[in-house]
Amino acid sequence: MKFEKFKAGHWQARYQYKSFEPVLVNHAWFWEDPVINALLESANRALGELNAFSLIVPDIDLFIEMHVVKEAQTSSRIEGTQTGIDEALMSEEQIRPEKRDDWREVRNYIDAVNTAIVELKSLPLSNRLLKRTHAILMQGARGEHKQPGEFRVSQNWIGGSSLLDAAFIPPHQDGVPALMGDLEQFWHNGDITVPHLVRIAISHYQFETIHPFLDGNGRIGRLLIPLYLVSHGLLSKPSLYLSDFFERNRASYYDALTRVRASNDLIHWVRFFLQGVTETATKGREVFRQILALRLEVEQQILVLGKRVPNARQLLNLLYRQPMIAAVDIEQAIGVSTPTANALIRDFQKLGILMEITGQMRGRTYVFERYLNLFAS
Q1: Taking Cα atoms as reference points, which of 356, 332, 344 lies closest to residue 302?
Q2: Terminal-residue alpha carbon distance, the chain
Q3: Are 347 and 305 in contact (CB under 8 A)?
Q4: DSSP type of residue 115
Q5: Helices 266-301 and 34-56, packing angle to 10 deg
Q6: What's the rounded Cα separation, in Å, for the pair 117 and 227?
Q7: How do residues 287-298 score in pLDDT, each as one tens digit?
Q8: Domains of the chain (ranges plus CATH)?
Q9: How many CA atoms lie less than 13 Å away from 45 in the CB half-sphere?
Q10: CB–CB of 39/271 below 8 Å?
């Protein structure tokens, strides 16, 4: 199928509404647009550079965890949650009761990402994996009664209060299994020559158009991108997340998806997506560079601690995973006594590595602010 001749689908009359029925995507794709070729080259180069950083950074998994937290917070914010990245790192007891629903959705997303990445080692990217991930995303959250872990068996809609005033109505539920089966085949079809970044651009559009779940489609659809890249070997670690780009360009993101359905303009969407990959991968590479510089700086700082250096290094490794901590976290994570944990905290405060943020006498929380700011910006 040539992009320039693409027809996105048709509107099918139902009882009192019309659903949009997209065409299948599991076939070869071609285009004449030279801009796509240039953007594809830039995106592949930026992605390769990002992946190189993830291969050379020592103990990369320490820092990937904060990438996941950032993605969970940003992707959930697109859906309307108001949890900050600092709050995402807190325990539920530290969150005000009125904000705990939002907090739970972000924490579920973190669990869903981490579980899906682990399962990719034994399970290919598939609808089965997406369903498992969706079940984790919905567990104990506001969507827990909307068929978690299962494709929908009723009609859903986007925008508006009902089918009668909806902004967009995805395909009828009876067609969801076949459409998702076609999409799954497209991910693994080795008989067609379609660049991976173009393939995942088409896949993200198609997933969001199908809207196969009753809730959580936006978050699962965005998570599909790094899962695809890792499963096909374009990334060795899940270090690229487009939610930040989509959130900063929210109106353009929704407009680009809508233009495909309304005007068959797949070229505009693919261009937008590839631009997002380039920008996000370049930004991610810079974050890794800043992490390496900060790590070198603080490693030099703790050398003044003498015999306490081994414990201090363990604490630093904990902070890379969990930049907001309490003394009890240190005790449990590195197996030291309460006096030793408190002494380490005092050392790190004097060195300017940790800062106390609660102002309390008990239950104090400390933050590795210079590190957290790399992800909060």
Answers
A1: 344
A2: 41
A3: yes
A4: H
A5: 20
A6: 7
A7: 999 999 999 999
A8: 3-287 (1.10.3290.10), 293-376 (1.10.10.10)
A9: 7
A10: yes
